[in-house]
């Protein structure tokens, strides 16, 4: 049963980061572009919407945070070795 649980965990994380992160980024792009306002391809005018623009920036920030955290997680052993700083002390090594 532990094999199936491990496979399921890898599948869920793969779906979240593999398909979910680009989907969140695309949603942020869409929200930011609708929040900026302007003219569409069919010449329809849209007023700027600061709430959508903020939502887009918030989603961009979340994606950036996930990517930076992932890079730091991958390089944690090197960071501990060279700088002596454990960025994830709550997790076992």
How would you describe this structure to a colleague?
This protein is mainly α and 93 residues long. It has a domain at 2-65. The protein is built from 3 helices and 2 strands. The chain has helices spanning 2-36, 50-74, 76-83; strands spanning 38-39, 45-46. A two-stranded antiparallel sheet has the order 1-2. A hairpin with a 5-residue loop joins strand 1 (38-39) and strand 2 (45-46). Helix 1 (2-36) packs antiparallel against helix 2 (50-74). It is elongated, with a radius of gyration of 19 Å. 2% of the residues are buried.
List keywords for this structure.
single chain, 2 strands, mainly alpha, 93 residues, two-stranded antiparallel sheet, 73% helix
Describe the biggest sheet?
A: 2 strands, antiparallel
The tally of helices reads: 3
Count of distinct strands: 2
* Average pLDDT number: 89
Strand residue content: under 5%
Order of helices and strands: HEEHH
Strand order of the largest sheet: 1-2
| Helical fraction | over 70%
User: Rg to the nearest angstrom?
Assistant: 19 Å
End-to-end separation in angstroms reads 25 Å
Alpha-beta content class: mainly alpha
Query: What is the global morphology?
Result: elongated
This entry's quaternary arrangement is single chain
Low-pLDDT sequence parts: none
Task: Describe what is shown at a glance.
This protein has 93 residues and is mainly alpha-helical. It has a domain of 64 residues.
Topology readout:
Blueprint: H1 2-36, E1 38-39, E2 45-46, H2 50-74, H3 76-83
Antiparallel strand pairs: 1-2
Helix pairs in contact: 1-2
